[in-house]
Amino acid sequence: MTRVLSYGRVSTRDQVDGYSLPAQRERLAAYAQFHGWDTPLHFEDPAISGKRDVRPAWTALMAAFKPGDTVLAKDLSRIARGGIVQTLTIIRDIEARGGRLILIDQSLDTSTPFGRVVLSILATFAEFELEQTRERSLIGRTQAAKSGAWPQGSVPYGYRRNAERRLELNPETMEAARTALRALIGRSYEAAKEHLQEIGLPSPTGKPTWSTTRLFSMAAQTAYIGEAVYTSDGERIIIPCPPLLTREEWALIHAGRDPGHAGGARPEKYPLTGHFRCEHGAPLNGTTAITWEKHKVVARFRTYHVTARLKQSYGCNCTMRRADELEAQTRALLARVLSDPSDPAALRALTAPPDPLADLHAQEREEIASALSNLTRLRVMGQIEERDYLNLREELKGRERALAPKPQNVTLPPAMLELAEDVRASTSEQLAELLDLLEVKLRLPHGGEVELVQFRPLGR
């Protein structure tokens, strides 16, 4: 007698309650009985997507599989929804174990060449149908977002979806979310996490356990100031919702914090954070380094470093540097350029080339470059006389020179000279404020001293 293993699957709880699994089970048993086989050993996965390679019941079926067994399923979509690769992998696995797969709706048997070919074609169409479904689903979610509905299943902590699928404040969790966010004012993510766990505030899991990653995620969620964001195929859609915080509180949460780093620190403790990049372009963040001796902490000191993730992204191998040393160099450098506008560092920062994105003559520059290229090509091909070539070339070069940015006036206002003394005597918190005020950007060469890249004097 043929030993039969039957398999049923549904992807949603609604299908489970709608008797889809019992219907599959009865039909598979009837098919086996009609062919005179043993009663199938049945396996079923309720509410499991067919795109998943690991499914509990399917794994158990394959564990019980023996050479010569037959696997029965209603149709292709029951065993695989992940495309032709997943389908062929399952078929080859069954065949390698000495068995076969039969899909009763399509009357396909993988033990025959025809069955294998048709099954591959069906898998291709199933994959196409799945892609079409994804596209329709994406369009539906995008339209819902543009109409003001929240299209995702999960909602920001402190909110819930109403009957119209719009975000509204959740009375049960809104105060906990507000407290968690306010804990970030004046604290690093790590310090805020420790504070919330000390006071026993429940997290989204319902337990008083917090992580810096969760706090970082909440601090990036603009729904808390009334502007939830949904991104669809590169399009950023703003969804209005009730704010949980004021914009002033939101600004305080992010003051002096690196937006790309979950370990962002207080500005008064690490004033260079947000103003500082290494020679590879990676931002440096403040952190506390610890020296251990015989399993005991013997020293703690502030440092600036590039995180491991950013090192990988920027191809950077920069080492950790002492914060006191770099901040002293920054004070001395800034005081020097504020006192003497003719200092080379000041001239470089003040006369830096304009942002190419803000170049009002970018299109005309491209046209001139293209014309020069074509002119050179004509001369090389002998299609233009040398005299005409030189005259036209000089005319184009003259137009190009006329577009060059004019040198900026580097005379500093008197107020800036007074700031030089303030910089020398500034505390860490005051230094952070001055760096923000002057829009200072700094660069740290590997093993070198701090360099000034940009600053904007008051009154300019």
UniProtKB/TrEMBL annotation:
SMART domains: Resolvase. SUPFAM superfamilies: Resolvase-like. The keyword Cell cycle does not apply. Pfam families: Recombinase (PF07508), Resolvase (PF00239). This is Site-specific DNA recombinase. Residues 3-148 form the Resolvase/invertase-type recombinase catalytic domain. PANTHER family: DNA-INVERTASE FROM LAMBDOID PROPHAGE, SERINE RECOMBINASE PINE-RELATED. It comes from Deinococcus hopiensis KR-140. CDD domains: Ser_Recombinase (cd00338). Keywords: DNA recombination, DNA-binding. It comes from the Bacteria. One of its GO terms (molecular function) is DNA strand exchange activity.
